[in-house]
């Protein structure tokens, strides 16, 4: 959960998000080193009155400043491609959930169960209880077992939406008539918040996503209660 004045990203709650955080720090350090080097060169060139013919006309320097950027780009590209392929990997999911975007709420269907599905609406501000977050809390959470591969099938019924949960490193567009899929593993128990990340109309800001990761035993108890109520 992000908090006011936070500068960094949210704490990772999935292996993919941990990889994304590491890549973010890696790329940021490269950018910082390049910025310091360029600033040093600019200051030194402006402040000194000395000139050197080996700097003004040097094939060695030209070779270095041609090869070095290529090496830096490779250092950024290879980890990036690795994470992109990791994000597309879906290996033997233990649970499949279909998330459908509507104007302006989400509906979830647990396809491994015969009749387990519900709509998830934002809790109005006047109905919030102490400890709940305004514009982020829903009346029904998407409950999942922790440490289990979860596949989410994402689509929309009306207009473009986007199912995104930053702490899990998940963001997938919901397109009418198209079924997209993504996968994640919640590495720890907790409640993770997200929002629709595609402008979808007047109430775009009022269709949050809440994922609750619980131990497998608690998930089985929850699913049994939901099936009984259905």
UniProtKB/TrEMBL annotation:
Function: Component of the cytochrome c oxidase, the last enzyme in the mitochondrial electron transport chain which drives oxidative phosphorylation. The respiratory chain contains 3 multisubunit complexes succinate dehydrogenase (complex II, CII), ubiquinol-cytochrome c oxidoreductase (cytochrome b-c1 complex, complex III, CIII) and cytochrome c oxidase (complex IV, CIV), that cooperate to transfer electrons derived from NADH and succinate to molecular oxygen, creating an electrochemical gradient over the inner membrane that drives transmembrane transport and the ATP synthase.
Name this protein carries in UniProt: Cytochrome c oxidase subunit 2
Annotated cofactor note: Binds a copper A center.
Protein keywords: Copper, Electron transport, Magnesium, Membrane, Metal-binding, Mitochondrion, Mitochondrion inner membrane, Respiratory chain, Translocase, Transmembrane, Transmembrane helix, Transport
Claim: Transport is one of the keywords in the record: yes
Signal peptide stretch: none
Listed GO MF terms: copper ion binding; cytochrome-c oxidase activity; oxidoreductase activity
Native source organism of the sequence: Nematalosa erebi
